[in-house]
């Protein structure tokens, strides 16, 4: 089984963190019925097991959201799938190409937007590939701009373009909307769904927002005690509305699993 750890193509940015980019793995799960499979995954930090035998399968083309309390290991699991954490134990099988978009867009400030999009990408026509990806996310006119001139929403669009230009079999989204204002967030939700329906990668969205998970995902998982402790399938047709009765019931179930009391209770 492929571990998906060697061959990370993310380059350090100016702050020394991993740039949001593609990850090439030794082998791929893309030939099977799933986009990613995790079996008995464990990650320890000192004496604490943040992941403790976690199991997870994401079907090809499936949109999965992952919820959990702060410190539950959501981002740890995502980084393991991205090949950015070599300290895990257990089975980890991912496609040949994995792309990540983080909460912070992590654009390199001294490169133009188009150059950020194709950072680390091996292609004969980098500008053409960048322009095509930027057009898909509504930034066709901003390829020559400097990253610091972009709004928060534009920067996150550029981050998505950088992820999707690699045509990933697995797209990992680590709370990419949490720093955006409410209106921009709605726009980004619609954009992500449109891009997902167009490209059909397997998607894992890590989020703290239960409503966001219910509006976007086919399946919502809760990580607790180092394992997937709950799963809710979301069958409501898209586009979804927050006040749909099925989503209201699922919201109550998920909040209870997260230890959040219903509204109106002490």
Automatic annotation (TrEMBL):
UniProt GO molecular function: ATP binding
Record's keyword annotation contains RNA-binding:
no
Instruction: List the InterPro entries.
Output: AAA+_ATPase (IPR003593), ABC_transporter-like_ATP-bd (IPR003439), ABC_transporter-like_CS (IPR017871), ABC_transporter_ATP-bind (IPR050166), P-loop_NTPase (IPR027417)
- The ABC transporter domain covers 36-250
Short name of one Pfam family: ABC_tran
Q: What SMART domains is this protein classified in?
A: AAA (SM00382)
Query: Where does this protein have coiled-coil stretches?
Result: none
Q: Does the keyword ATP-binding apply?
A: yes
Which PANTHER family does the UniProt entry name for this protein?
ALIPHATIC SULFONATES IMPORT ATP-BINDING PROTEIN SSUB, TAURINE IMPORT ATP-BINDING PROTEIN-RELATED
- What this protein is called in its record is ABC transporter ATP-binding protein
């Amino acid at each position: 089984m492929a571990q998906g750890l060697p061959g990370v193509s993310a380059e350090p940015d100016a702050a020394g963190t991993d740039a949001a980019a593609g990850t090439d793995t030794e082998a791929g799960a893309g030939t099977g019925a799933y986009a990613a499979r995790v079996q008995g995954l464990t990650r320890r930090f000192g004496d604490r097991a943040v992941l403790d035998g976690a199991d997870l399968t994401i079907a090809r083309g499936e949109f999965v959201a992952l919820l959990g309390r702060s410190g539950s290991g959501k981002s740890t699991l995502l980084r393991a799938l991205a090949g950015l954490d070599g300290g895990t134990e257990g089975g980890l099988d991912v496609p040949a190409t994995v792309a990540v978009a983080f909460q912070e867009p992590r654009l390199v400030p001294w490169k133009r937007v188009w150059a950020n999009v194709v950072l680390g990408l091996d292609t004969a026509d980098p500008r053409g590939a960048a322009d095509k990806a930027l057009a898909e996310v509504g930034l066709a006119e901003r390829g020559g701009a400097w990253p610091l001139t972009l709004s928060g929403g534009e920067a996150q669009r550029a981050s998505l373009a950088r992820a999707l230009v690699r045509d990933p079999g697995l797209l990992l989204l680590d709370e990419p909307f949490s720093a955006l204002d409410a209106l921009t967030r709605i726009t980004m939700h619609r954009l992500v769904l449109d891009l997902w329906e167009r490209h059909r990668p397997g998607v894992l969205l890590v989020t703290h927002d239960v409503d966001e998970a219910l509006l976007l995902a086919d399946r919502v998982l809760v990580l607790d005690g180092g394992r997937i402790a709950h799963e809710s399938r979301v069958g409501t047709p898209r586009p979804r509305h927050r006040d749909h009765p099925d989503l209201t019931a699922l919201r109550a179930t998920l909040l209870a699993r997260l230890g959040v009391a219903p509204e109106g209770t002490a």
